[in-house]
Amino acid sequence: MSGAHATVIVVLGASALPVARRIQQALPQAQVLGLEGRADAADATYRAFGETLRGLYRAGTGIIALCAAGIVIRALASVLDEKGSEPPVLAVAEDGSAVVPLLGGLGGVNRLARRIAAALEVAAAITTSGELRFGTCLLDPPEGYVLADLERGKHFVSDVLAGGSVRIEGDAPWLASAGLPQAVDAALAIRVSPWLADAPHELLIHPRSVAVAVEADDGDVASQVAGALAQAGLARGALACLLAPMELMGSLALAEAAQALGADLRFTKAATASEAMLAQLPHAKPLQEAGLTIAVNASPIEACELGQRRGRLAVVGLGPGDRAFMVPAVQAELARAEDILGYETYVNMAGPFLPEQVLHCTDNREELQRARHALALAASGRRVVVVSSGDPGVFAMASAVLEALDGASDLAWHALELVMLPGVSASLATAALAGAPLGHDFCVISLSDNLKPWSVIEHRLDLAGKADLAMAFYNPISKSRPWQLGQALDVVRRHRGPETPVVLGRDVARPGQRLTVVNLGALTPDMVDMRTMVLVGSSTTRVIPRGDGTPWVYTPRWYPMAP
Prior knowledge:
Elements: E1 7-11, H1 17-26, E2 31-35, E3 44-46, H2 49-58, E4 62-66, H3 69-76, E5 89-92, E6 99-103, H4 109-120, H5 129-134, E7 145-147, H6 150-161, E8 166-169, E9 188-192, E10 202-207, E11 210-213, H7 221-232, E12 239-245, H8 252-261, E13 264-268, H9 273-280, E14 285-289, E15 292-296, E16 312-317, H10 328-336, E17 339-343, H11 344-350, E18 358-362, H12 367-379, E19 383-388, H13 397-405, H14 411-415, E20 417-421, H15 426-434, E21 435-436, E22 442-446, H16 454-466, E23 470-474, H17 484-492, E24 501-506, E25 514-519, E26 532-536, E27 542-545, E28 551-554
Parallel strand pairs: 1-2, 1-4, 2-3, 4-5, 8-9, 9-10, 11-12, 12-13, 16-19, 16-20, 17-18, 17-19, 21-28, 22-23
Antiparallel strand pairs: 5-6, 7-10, 11-15, 14-15, 23-26, 24-25, 24-26, 27-28
């Protein structure tokens, strides 16, 4: 399968999981998604099959669905795009007896089907005429090569299927075992070349064998590179890589240019990018066009051999615990990470992991050290994820990473790609379980005095009480801080009546989850531990019965107006 597509294995029930795991052994980067409540032992769960498949398809994610082909077809019917832009989509029988490629002929679906079929020891149900006749899809060259013109390619394949012979011009090792009708004087030709050509009877395939050194990011870089390639007679599709100096790693213009050109972007510590490029590609043909240095290699270029990529550091929130509450963007980030850092308990929550992913587990009190380690790893060109429970910006690692970055002298730290991906916070997860106790204005306060004096905490509690805000208490109590919650409640009781509802959520969205609703007058510190979220209502917070007799707690959206 082409490296352009991530891939997921989607199952509807637990009975399909054994086959899904066999496929995953052959495709270790693929994640298994299971229907919530039916296949919870999967790597992640989803709730709506059709909606999930359509979302994956729109995102360009390859889909291996362990169910009937008709179910997949009906689910995707409303979002099918023009052929040529679709990811590979396959249906696999739950017992592994059939592998049916459905969509993505130009996305490597048949190669993927054969790979899965080999793992399951069955035959793939290939129906594509060209593949059946020749054993390969001429319009889907392997990684490192790109088809020049799809429409012309379709006519070319039709001519070959109609009985035309072909000759091969250039190096096409993947066609060596293909059953193509070849003749040295054939009118039809398959030409593998980085150079532009306009022959009506040729199937033109470009090896991604061209690299361009870019020394500055002034002006429209994409247009400059495209113009230089055109002047040299080279195809844009043959461009594999842009190489730039390390000091330009944070350049948005370069990143946008690489994306527009469909090229990898790499960086070098050498004096000039051109010097480094030619040193790494000693047998390439160097060209100078429009002030740019171009290297034309004899074979496809492995971009990883040229400098380093721009590193990426994602600081993510895992949610309260259950993977069902982890947002899809975080799941995708974890799936492609090379290094995962965090407090050991949270790292374990983020799994399962692939064997090649490196885990860096540390104590929960080592936030700044962990942040600096993550920044250093990402600055070296790696894809790094730092995990927090809940949301990373709520008393968690997002602030620690930015604190480590603030004033750091290493320019590479500032140039890397840094993103924060939100998660469902413990306060919001607890509130949702209880109803809507935070349904009006509220505040979030940590009762830990490790990083701020207790006097500040007490002052804020007093002000929040005066403002009649609902409150969420993080870090309410611990063995080393046994008295703070009692004092905090004393402050709150200056402004709240004893009947004020209080929600205690312990291990919400984790095994052993427990929700308790008490009133402020009855609340005592021994009812709370470090794993409990405390939500204190405002003067308007109400309790009403559920159908089963347990309480709903909510704070109305309105507020009493002064007469």
